[in-house]
From TrEMBL:
This is IclR family transcriptional regulator. PANTHER family: HELIX-TURN-HELIX TRANSCRIPTIONAL REGULATOR, ICLR FAMILY (PTHR30136), HTH-TYPE TRANSCRIPTIONAL REPRESSOR ALLR (PTHR30136:SF24). Keywords: DNA-binding, Transcription, Transcription regulation. Pfam families: HTH_IclR, IclR_C.
Length: 255
């Protein structure tokens, strides 16, 4: 029987290394961590970059996992498992925030709602489980786009429909917004899908830190945002705590 292929083992080691931490790594850091010559590490990184499994930051020259690999990472996790492992935390988030909570995963260029907890009051509400939301105009969708779980190309194929005057309908406007979401770790929609409504969402991660879904809080804009239209910091804190708890339940390292 043939033995293992060394180049593939080394490529896998590099991918695990990049997945194991929250920051980008330079060529020297990758080589030193794995005991590889810089030339060897550089050749593997260039190959992984060619197939979009690795991305290189243009400003720093450092490397991170690429969108193609992050997108593939969702396939191992069954939607029912994501839902079952998230229910308790989603219910608790609705109770603590006083707002509706939804879980989403990508499906055919949109966001599929796989769990919905009603706002804990007596108002009339409609169950959204099974409904599809636009990637570009929902906080859940923008999280999935920002972290590569859904691709911008899939959103473009469906079309960047303008639901309100606040909706991002031009790719050149969407790209910097997604970069900001990656930097801050959460996304917002403020009257982008419907006037008077707002929402915030955060990524749910699985093994290796791969983003496998998103959890969000939504409600009237005056409840989600302050007087200047900015999401309430207290809600963001509650949301991110819930996202981290679900992620740990799915096997993600602390982050």
């Amino acid at each position: 029987m043939a033995g293992p292929v060394q180049s593939i083992e080394r490529a896998a080691a590099i991918l695990r290394l990049l997945a194991g931490g929250p920051r980008r790594l330079g060529l020297g850091e990758v080589a030193a961590s794995l005991g590889l010559a810089k030339g060897t590490a550089h050749g593997i990184l260039r190959t992984l970059q060619h197939v979009d499994f690795v991305e290189q930051d243009a400003a720093t020259g450092k490397y991170q996992l690429g969108a193609a690999l992050l997108h593939l990472g969702t396939s191992y996790l069954d939607v029912n498992e994501l839902r079952s492992r998230s229910i308790n935390w989603a219910d608790a988030l609705a109770g603590r925030s006083g707002e509706a909570v939804r879980l989403g995963t990508p499906l055919e260029g949109r966001v599929l709602i796989i769990h919905h907890v009603f706002r804990p009051d007596d108002t009339l509400q409609t169950l959204d489980v099974g409904s599809l939301l636009p990637l570009h105009a929902s906080s859940l969708g923008k999280v999935l786009l920002a972290f590569g779980t859904a691709t911008v190309e899939s959103a473009l194929e469906v079309g960047l429909e303008g639901y309100t005057r606040h909706t991002l309908v031009v790719r050149e406007d969407l790209n910097p917004a997604l970069a900001e979401i990656r930097e801050q770790g959460w996304a917002a929609e403020v009257q982008e899908m419907s006037m008077g409504d707002a929402g915030i969402a955060a990524p749910i991660r699985g093994h290796g830190g791969l983003v496998v879904g998103a959890i969000g809080v939504s409600g009237p804009v005056e409840r989600i945002c302050d007087s200047k239209g900015r999401p309430q910091p207290a809600l963001i804190t509650l949301l991110r705590e819930a996202a981290r708890a679900i992620s740990r339940n799915l096997g993600a390292a602390r982050w």
